[in-house]
Amino acid sequence: MLALLFPSASFSAVSTMVDNLSSSGMDRITDEVEALRRLLRGRLGCCHTKSTFALCFIDGLSFAEEAVTSAIHWGLDDIPLLGGSAGDDLKFETTSLISNGKVASDSAIIVLIATEIPFHVFKTDNFIPTDEKLVVTASDPDHRTVREFNATNAAEEYAASVGIVAQNLTPLSFASHPVVVKVGGEYYCRSIQKMHPDGSLSFFCAIDDGVVLSIAQPKDMVESTRAALRDVEERLGGIDMILGFDCVLRRLDARNRQVFRDISELYRVNNVIGFGTYGEQYRSMHLNQTFTGIAFGERQAAE
Fold first, then answer.
1. What order do you get walking across the sheet with 280-282 strand by strand?
2. Are 20 and 104 members of one domain?
């Protein structure tokens, strides 16, 4: 259970829940965002000096994060967005969201928050691509499942690429040996969720035939995270607290590499509070195996 209170003297917020994602048009979501923006402007008045950011919380088993994130971002214009996909402790059965007393699956919560407190939205990961390629040659995009890589059984080809016997693949294997895709000159993780009895692999994100994935080599998670937080601190002139969304696979990988306590201490000293997620939203992108966050500075830093 996480409870985070934003003082009303410094923050103004409006929110909405969008339900039935599986049957909702993306135009409807963009319209909801634009209505929220009008509502927030009405509350703030014409003479406010506050800056706005957006949070989203999405059903992590909806298979809709990419489309929903894009639709939200489209309605936000230049307002920065971040968020996370709700999970169920790796059971992959049911995930739920709660808003104003309503509990729902197949849904998303969108929150717009305006504040005079300085803030910075950021992301960090800990992997670099290698030359080992996996081309998706057979998939089920609607269910984010890959049956073949390089015209070979998906689990067997992936396992051979990372030096593991296919029968021994576990969530820890996927966390320790991520795959990445190149988009717009940058690499983004496309995390594997689980292996099925037939050797097909389910992903936490959109996947399709023809997608070229690279096996990634992990970097030092503690040092890469420390460097990202140091950069944020320099930008803000100090960190008051951070609201973060930390991928569940990062946590599994941290435990596997025996650096979980070091990461936890790094979060503690930087006043990080937040969620473990099945995926992370950052601006227009749905990401995996990433830490996304919004850091708040001291009010004096903006004066």
1. 11-18, 108-115, 51-59, 81-86, 280-282, 285-287
2. yes
Q: List CB contacts of 137: < 8 A, sequence separation 6 or more.
A: 148, 149, 150, 151, 209
Residues 42-79 have pLDDT tens digits of: 988 866 668 999 999 999 989 889 999 999 999 999 89
Nearest to 129 by CA among 204, 174, 179: 179
Alpha-carbon distance of 224 to 218, in angstroms, equals 10
249 and 145 co-located in one domain: no
Q: How far apart are CA 166 and CA 158, in angstroms?
A: 8
pLDDT tens sequence across 112-137: 999 999 999 999 999 999 999 999 99
Is the pLDDT at 93 greater than 70, yes or no? yes
Q: Are both 131 and 108 inside the same structural domain?
A: no
In a domain, 3, yes or no: no
**CA 17 to each of CA 57, 66, 110, 133: distance values in angstroms, whole numbers, following the listed order:** 9, 17, 6, 40
Angstrom distance (rounded) from CA 12 to CA 50: 9
Residues 150 and 281 in one domain: no
Nearest in space to 263 (alpha carbons), one of 250, 249, 274, 275: 250
Domain of 280 in residue numbering reads as 11-124+221-302
The count of structural domains within the chain is 2
Structure confidence by residue, pLDDT tens digits, 158-213: 999 999 999 999 988 998 899 999 988 888 888 999 999 999 999 999 999 999 99
Report d(CA 128, CA 216) in Å as an integer.
Answer: 5
Same domain, 111 and 241: yes
Is residue 153 located within the same domain as residue 297? no
